[in-house]
Write a structure and sequence with these properties.
mainly alpha; 2 domains; two-stranded antiparallel sheet; 2 strands
Length: 123
């Protein structure tokens, strides 16, 4: 755990007490690239991390938010590396709810979902 006057582990350049000390997330994964012995933003001890099989993207998270962090990493794999997860794409094509969710997300952020759309619906 960093001390109040030490540099913040989020690399903001601020002191811990003026940056992440006492921050809490209302909901969602407390994913942050920190060593597991630091407290995560939800102020629970870190339980571990997840790393993308295909790139250096990684998340540390607390035990309570493991499921959400895992879902976030699966989403990362689908968005960033759709050509490497053909089984996930095949399951997605058969699931109307997943298709609807992808279309909704694509409408909000086309650049982030472009690779998935190209794999699902080649022109």
């Amino acid at each position: 755990m960093p001390t109040r006057n030490s540099p913040c582990p989020c690399n903001s350049g601020k002191k811990f007490k003026h940056c992440c000390a006492g921050k809490k997330l209302a909901a969602g994964p407390c994913a942050i690239l920190l060593p597991p012995d630091f407290l995560t933003p939800c102020n629970r001890p870190g339980s571990g991390g997840l790393k993308c099989t295909y790139c250096d993207q990684g998340l540390f998270h607390c035990a309570i938010h493991h499921g959400q962090a895992l879902q976030q990493m699966r989403g990362h794999a689908l968005r960033a590396h759709p050509e490497k997860v053909p089984g996930m794409l095949a399951r997605t094509k058969r699931d109307p709810k997943a298709i609807a969710a992808i279309r909704e997300q694509y409408a909000k952020d086309p650049a982030n979902w472009q690779k998935v759309v190209e794999q699902l619906w080649p022109e």
